[in-house]
């Protein structure tokens, strides 16, 4: 019998709506607070940063938001993305489990990030915006927004975390190919960047610092807005095309996942694969275990505190309730730059608090080992971020082997690692370290969380 490997949807089967999990949650998401008054913010408070259409998506509790036709037309460049059955990996592991992966590396940018970059650029152009500022870690988000900016004639300025800027020069080159300007963060182009460099000239940077720089410049000009690649509600919602397609493809495969896995940094890729399945269960459908895989060096879900905190290090953003390591926390300079964020998306954090998801943290070297195992079986070299999902999937498959269970495992392979080969070279030469965070720095960052009184 011939075993099917790929499950492909026709372009006509691509989702026409994004899914908003807020419609199905048993308890509403805690309010976003103004950092000065500690009162819930309204749409007008966010207007300096985002166009009103995205702000309304941010606060919406409608289950479905229609995907504009111009966005769907661009999505067709790579969507629907393929679902694969990992027959060869199953054989290598000797597991009775069935392993599926949704591959987002087929996008022009090589990751899931254009799923939100395209609509964000579209809505900004519709609002008359001329320039977007943003931050990026490993560079996948910066690459994606640069790509989107080129399609909608928007100037794009990217602040890339300095350690990733130095580690991944080819990512920077791709951004410049798309017409964007990319700067290492902290930089001398912002007041906040200069203040960080004054204290530590060799600062490796963090996503929190890069966000502060991008926000600082965005509010200075009327023709400029800020774009964020993760964390926010509307960003996570845009990514649900991943899970919505996967649900259709799993039915094509006559299977349904017992376990759904995504890597987690800010939460967008994880939400993309997981939220449609969580919503399916909340509406009375079959429930899957939902597992978030994060780096042990930046473990916001497994070590962070569920509390109100700033989304950036310079404290320019509103306060959101999330699992956080503290906004002043600087993670070690690992190669999974896209997962080096001090906080987790409020919606993902809320799902964790409600018991709807589980979380596990994995070391850098063990994730690269899993990525190499996957590449040698399936042929795709995963991005360091995606290796965390691969590692979690392999651990689940080996658990099934020990328990003699034929469970179905689905994970999101969020991007390829073609720009990350220096990290793989370090792994093969034995120079890749499992850098641990400083426990004292973590304690200090958590002790500095804003004081927000609990609602009566």
TrEMBL record:
Q: Cell membrane: present as a keyword of the record?
A: no
What Enzyme Commission number(s) apply to this enzyme? 4.2.1.20
Keyword list, A-Z: Amino-acid biosynthesis, Aromatic amino acid biosynthesis, Lyase, Pyridoxal phosphate, Tryptophan biosynthesis
Q: Where does the UniProt annotation place the signal sequence? A: none
InterPro entries xref list: Trp_synth_b-like, Trp_synth_b_CS, Trp_synth_beta/beta-like, TrpB-like_PALP, TrpB-like_PALP_sf
Which pathway, per its entry?
Amino-acid biosynthesis; L-tryptophan biosynthesis; L-tryptophan from chorismate: step 5/5
N6-(pyridoxal phosphate)lysine (modified residue): where?
Answer: 113
Q: Which domain of life is it from?
A: Bacteria
**Enzyme kind, highest EC tier:** lyase
The cofactor(s) it depends on are: pyridoxal 5'-phosphate
Domain Tryptophan synthase beta chain-like PALP residue range list: 77-415
Keyword Lyase (UniProt): yes
**Family the entry assigns:** Belongs to the TrpB family.
Q: Quote the NCBIfam families the UniProt record gives.
A: PRK12391.1, trpB_rel
Q: What does this protein do?
A: The beta subunit is responsible for the synthesis of L-tryptophan from indole and L-serine.
Q: How does it assemble?
A: Tetramer of two alpha and two beta chains.
Name listed for the protein in its UniProt record: Tryptophan synthase beta chain
The species this protein belongs to is: Hydrogenophaga electricum
């Amino acid at each position: 019998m011939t075993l099917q490997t790929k499950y492909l949807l026709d372009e006509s089967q691509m989702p026409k709506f994004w899914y908003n999990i807020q419609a199905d949650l048993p308890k509403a998401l805690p309010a976003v607070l103004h950092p000065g008054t500690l009162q819930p913010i309204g749409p007008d408070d966010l207007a300096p940063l985002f166009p009103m259409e995205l702000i309304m998506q941010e606060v919406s509790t409608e289950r479905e938001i229609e995907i504009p036709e111009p966005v769907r037309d661009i999505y067709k460049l790579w969507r629907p993305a393929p679902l694969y059955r990992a027959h060869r990996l199953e054989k290598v592991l000797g597991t009775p489990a069935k392993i599926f992966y949704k591959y987002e590396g087929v996008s022009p940018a090589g990751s899931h990030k254009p799923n939100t970059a395209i609509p964000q650029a579209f809505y900004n152009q519709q609002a008359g915006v001329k320039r977007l500022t943003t931050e990026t870690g490993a560079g996948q988000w910066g690459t994606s927004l640069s790509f989107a900016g080129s399609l909608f004639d928007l100037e794009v300025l990217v602040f890339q975390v300095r350690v990733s800027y130095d580690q991944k020069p080819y990512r920077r080159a791709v951004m410049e190919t798309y017409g964007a300007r990319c700067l290492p963060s902290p930089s001398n182009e912002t007041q906040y960047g200069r203040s960080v460099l004054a204290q530590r000239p060799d600062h490796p940077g963090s996503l929190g610092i890069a966000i502060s720089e991008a926000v600082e410049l965005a509010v200075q000009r009327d023709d400029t807005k800020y774009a964020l690649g993760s964390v926010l509600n509307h960003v996570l919602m845009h990514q649900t095309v991943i899970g919505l397609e996967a649900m259709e493809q799993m039915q094509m495969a006559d299977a349904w996942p017992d376990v759904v896995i995504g890597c987690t940094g800010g939460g967008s890729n994880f939400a993309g694969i997981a939220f449609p399945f969580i919503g399916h269960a909340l509406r009375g459908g079959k429930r899957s275990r939902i597992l978030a895989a994060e780096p042990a060096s930046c473990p916001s879900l497994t070590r962070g505190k569920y509390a109100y905190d700033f989304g950036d290090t310079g404290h320019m953003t509103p306060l959101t309730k999330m699992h956080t390591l503290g906004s002043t926390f600087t993670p070690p300079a690992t190669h999974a730059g896209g997962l080096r964020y001090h906080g987790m998306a409020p919606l993902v954090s809320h799902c964790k608090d409600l018991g709807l998801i589980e979380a596990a943290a994995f070391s850098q070297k063990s994730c690269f080992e899993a990525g190499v195992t996957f590449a040698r079986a399936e042929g795709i070299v995963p991005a360091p971020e995606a290796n965390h999902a691969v590692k979690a999937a392999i651990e689940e498959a080996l658990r099934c082997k020990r328990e003699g269970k034929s469970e179905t495992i689905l994970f999101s392979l969020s991007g390829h690692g073609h720009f990350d080969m220096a990290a793989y070279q370090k792994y093969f030469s034995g120079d890749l370290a499992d850098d641990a965070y400083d426990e004292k720095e973590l304690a200090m960052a958590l002790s500095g969380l804003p004081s927000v009184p609990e609602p009566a």
